[in-house]
Amino acid sequence: MAEVAATTSPLVAALGKIKESVMHVITLRKPMTEILDRTAYQRPASFSEATGRMQKNLNYFKINYILFTAAILSAFILYHPTSLLILSAIGAAWTYMYLVRTEPLKIGERPVTDREKMLGMSGVSLLAVFFMSSAGSVIFSAMGVALLCIGAHSAVRVPDDLFIDDSANESGFFSFLQPPRAGVSGGAA
Question: Number of C-alpha atoms within 13 angstroms, CB side, residue 72?
Answer without folding.
Answer: 19
